[in-house]
Amino acid sequence: MSLVKKLIKDGHLKTLEIIKAFEKIKRKDFLLPKYKTMAGLNEPLSIGHGQTISQPLTVAFMLELLQPKPGEKILDVGSGSGWSVALLSEIVGPKGRVFGLELIQELAELAGHNVGKYDFISSKRARIIQGDGYKGLPEHAPFDKIITAAAAKEIPKKLLDQLKIGGRMVLPIGRQFETQDMVVVDKVSDDDIKIRKIPGFIFVPLIKN
Description:
The protein is 25% helix and 29% strand. It is of the alpha/beta class. It has one domain (3-201): 3-Layer(aba) Sandwich (Rossmann fold). The strands form two sheets. The chain has a seven-stranded mixed beta sheet. Helix 2 packs across helix 4 (83-92). The longest helix has 11 residues, at 56-66.
């Protein structure tokens, strides 16, 4: 059984648009050459520079929490080798936009190369930018959705400020090397923020400049 079919069977992949993205966007296109034969394993793999491409189950879980929609503008913080940027780009469709923000220059370049294997960069549906995830991309805000694949100690205020009213952010929160919470943030208004926490995750830290 393929990894995607197993994620569907086990109830981790549920939404049709997310399932279609997982079927089309191949994880092996975002792995280092020595790990390409391990693309079907449900585990995180190194992409160099002390960073990893997340476990497929975790990516599926986060996207199901995020619920990206066609036409949305989404910020992907800590985009690594670009897999989640490509998945999101497929989901938002031609009228949507996805911005991948990666602090490490070499990984930003790698993500641009990998996402470019599809038509998302050339069509300007996706863009990879080198920068500090804590600062976000105010020049492109507000965003309908924000997703972060690295753990901060608390919700970065600048990211929350860049989230549209009615928008949602999904990110891990907690200390490095300790069990972290997956946090779902719904911005009802500037003064009304709904937060839901799901325990039991471990992510690489969200690093600053």
